[in-house]
Amino acid sequence: MTASQREHATAAGSEDDPGRGLKALMDILAASPGAEIAAAADALGELPEAAPVRGPETGLVMLRGRIGGDGAPFNLGEAAVTRATVRLAGGAVGHAYALGQDREKARLSAVLAALWSEGTRREAILRDVLEPLAEARAAETSRTRREAAATRVDFFTMVRGDD
Amino acid sequence: MYVAVKGGEAAIANAHKMLADRRRGDRSLPAITVEQLVEQLGLAVDRVMAEASLYAPALAALAVKQARGDMIEAIFLLRAYRTTLPRFGASRPLETGEMVAERRVSATYKDLPGGQVLGPTFDYTHRLLDPELAADAPVDPAPAREHEGEPLTRVSDILAHEDLIERAFTGDPDQMPEEPSGDLTREPMEFPMPRDLRLQALARGDEGFLLALGYSTQRGYGRTHPFAGEIRIGEVEVEMDVPELGFAVALGRIRVTECQMVNQFAGSAKLAPQFTRGYGLVFGQSERKAMAMALVDRSLRAGELGEDRVAPAQDEEFVISHADNVQATGFVEHLKLPHYVDFQAELDLVRRLRAEFEAARAGKDDATAREAAE
Amino acid sequence: MTMAQFDTQAVSGGFTDPVFEAQAAFRALMDASARPGTIHDLPAGLAPPAPLGAGSGAVMLALCDPDTPVWLAEALRGEAVSAWIAFQCGAPIVGDGASAAFAFAAANDMPALSALSAGTQEYPDRATTLVVEVEAFEGGEEIMIEGPGILGRSRIAPMGLPHSFLNERAGNRALFPRGVDVVLVCGSRVMALPRSTVLSRKSEQEAN
């Protein structure tokens, strides 16, 4: 996690923009495999009871592209998305949306989002869930970029003839 | 005409069991898993997702397995499945400029910023069958280079500096719509069709059909003088505005292939000579489909750019109406369903026409014979 | 209102069993539309934020989704109702009645039918369906109805509809096959007056 990402996440819940840290958490949860989230959540110890409000349920999101890459939007096609909403005993509500069909991942992500909104365990969530998952995703992205860079063509010019 | 026919239940049930048996094949071999298909036949899975118009790798792989590798059957299965799901909403437009690219090549500039990044390509392989792959030989991990590379500048942005290429949105930038003009999965098709709807149809169109049409434009049937300005393959983040949150969240990343075709254009009464563009964007890794899509997108713009419509690839009603392989296979394959009554009616008609024809010929023969006798 | 309270209200008061309750609401609406003027029960127990009623909420959750733009009468526009709609069905809220698939209003706050979409000649199904909360299904001015789904003629007397309603319905009727469909809701009960139903004042009928 970079310094700016960390700042972004810890600014969470500040009175002026309560959604900021929540967004960082939800983004990372959606990008991470269910098994990794479950392992990270284990470190938080016992999670509170969470009542299902909606889902987990799988549905569709229409994905849009842009004509020419940066022009007007068009409908490219749909993606399977699974979402969940839960409520903790104290009333805090958490939502989760992620590509794929992993219902347990959606449920657990919603519980973590609700815990975050409740506000009492943010440091632990940041340390045990958000940061390790963000680091794992960053490492994957970096690996892809470095593998791609290894296939970059280094042109060299052949000089023929005199001067 | 269709008639209700009873019977055949036992035959149908046994046919389905036979299908299951043949699908499983030799029981002494391990059954193939969905995970294996996703990992090892990824491009087949990608094609099913693209033409089913549903990004869901595990489901697409299951469809490939269930369809015994019949791609159009697998696409059909995935299309049928999507109809069972509610729609939660629409994403923000994917920003392909921010792609984590595995491949990016340009046929128009050798030294563009970011360079030519080949990625996991079949190009430059010798197309010799590799006996080692028949066994389970260990495979080395992909080499990596410490430097992660520069940002990949779009080729269209390079040409835009000289104002020699049309912009992606040709109107007033402040007027660029925020929503597509329609959705093919929600409203019936109407022609003429706006470009955003055509692109939706092409993105889910049959790869073979688009490939043949693209090829036809190169061979002179609606020539558009194309250059592959840029092709990029990689992952882009999907973001959606979630109404109950009041902000956009990322849902994860998907793999797409994008092709920007750059086409020479001599200009028209209204437009100065410049390069025009054709665009292709496809789920998964499919350079062939993205390139064909970009060629066909450009050729379908003939009317807009004041070109004569003379070739099949320039006829939007022809192209869009026949690009969908699920529709096409449904209509072609319905011919094998019982048409017993239709056929009886035609048989009666042909018998009657034949009798009339024979009678007329006999009459003529009689007349000829009479003439000859006289 | 804190974020948590706001969330809690938005995520409460929907269907408790979404599949079966949505089906029951759909069935009630279908039967009501097939037999205009008859009264049918919607699933009870919904608790949308006031002033949106339980019956309107049930109709909304059964029929509206991200593909159906919704128009709300002035009194219904507010953060609580908007947040509830956003979470419960995801329907976009539009300011222009003519672009809405569904419009919701109380009888005393009804939009002019002509301000809503009557569909097109090619696609008359693209008309707006107007859902109106009335005070009661009995006790109002007596109206005779006739048309498809009604054996001969039938009488209704919903309470609280504006006096101009019958004239507007006549104008709406003249557009057929285009036209706005009307659904009346009272508590958790529903009555439909589809565009094919012809309305007239009972007093005028007696005069004839």
- Low-confidence runs of chain A (pLDDT<50, min 5 residues)? 1-16
Q: Please give the CATH class of chain C.
A: Alpha Beta
Mean pLDDT of chain A: 88
Number of strands of chain C: 10
- Unreliable segments of 5+ consecutive residues of chain C: none
The string of secondary-structure elements of chain A, in order, is: HHHEEEHH
Tell me the number of structural domains of chain C.
1
What fold name goes in the CATH topology slot of chain C?
Rossmann fold
Radius of gyration of chain C: 17 Å
End-to-end distance of chain C: 58 Å
Summarize the structure.
Chain A has 163 residues and is an alpha+beta fold. Chain A is 45% helix and 25% strand. Chain A has helices spanning 3-10, 20-31, 34-42, 103-118, 122-150; strands at 50-66, 73-88, 93-99.
Structure description:
The complex is a heterotrimer of chains A (163), B (374) and C (208). Chain A is of the alpha+beta class and 163 residues long. Helix content of chain A is 45%, strand content 25%. Chain A is elongated. Mean pLDDT of chain A is 88; it is low at 1-16. Chain B is of the alpha+beta class and 374 residues long. Chain B is 40% helix and 16% strand. Chain B is built from 13 helices and six strands. Chain B has helices at 9-24, 34-40, 42-52, 57-66, 71-82, 131-134, 155-160, 195-203, 207-218, 287-299, 316-322, 325-333, 340-373, and strands at 54-55, 87-93, 100-105, 226-242, 247-265, 274-283. A four-stranded antiparallel beta sheet of chain B has the order 3-4-5-6. The longest helix of chain B has 34 residues, at 340-373. The two termini of chain B are 53 Å apart. Chain C has 208 residues and is α/β, with parallel strands linked by helices. Helix content of chain C is 30%, strand content 19%. Chain C is built from six helices and ten strands. Chain C has helices at 3-11, 18-34, 54-63, 79-88, 165-174, 202-207; strands at residues 40-41, 70-72, 93-94, 102-106, 129-133, 143-146, 153-156, 181-186, 189-193, 198-201. The mean pLDDT of chain C is 92. Chains in contact: A-B, A-C, B-C. Strand 1 of chain A pairs parallel with strand 2 of chain B, so a sheet runs across the interface.
